Amino acid sequence: MNQKLDRRKKYTRMALKYSLITLLKIKPISTITVKEICERADINRSTFYTHYHDQFDLLEQIEEKMIADINTYLSQYNFTRDEKSLQMTEKLLEYIAANYDICQTLLNENGDHSFERRVMDVARTFLVRNWTEKNNMDADLSEYAGTFLISGSIYVIKQWLANNMDKPPKQIAQLINSIELNG
Fold this sequence. Notes:
Layout: H1 2-24, H2 34-41, H3 45-51, H4 55-75, H5 82-98, H6 100-106, H7 113-135, H8 139-162, H9 169-182
Keywords: DNA-binding, Repressor
Organism: Lentibacillus cibarius
Protein name: TetR/AcrR family transcriptional regulator
């Protein structure tokens, strides 16, 4: 019986998540209502409120899961070897490709721009820490270099998503790493 409840909760949360993602494709979070989310998910509003406070809470939990996954991916790699950097970038792009719908939606103009900043902050933290060690660079300068590289990489990824991932993750990873290594 308990397992059945867990499955229902998972299904409900999944339905609400995809309902919100679908709505974010056509309008900003500030104009989306709980009623719209529930109608699209075919779930009662009272059920929604047993899981989330409001549409912003649902979006935040979706973003938190994505950030946690990105952290997990980045934690597995060490930038001290160029191959590892390429491998990390490729794996991250494969994760983004596997979660295309959510990533493309969260990074589009209707998504919450705090998600993009949070992704940049997470990536910058890993990049700066490893770049400082690798290049014997001053921490402050490494911070600026990291901001530059991450901002450019995010926009390359956004363009890649906007073009329906017209190139394989490996090719985009090679492009990003080539720019990182060679300028």
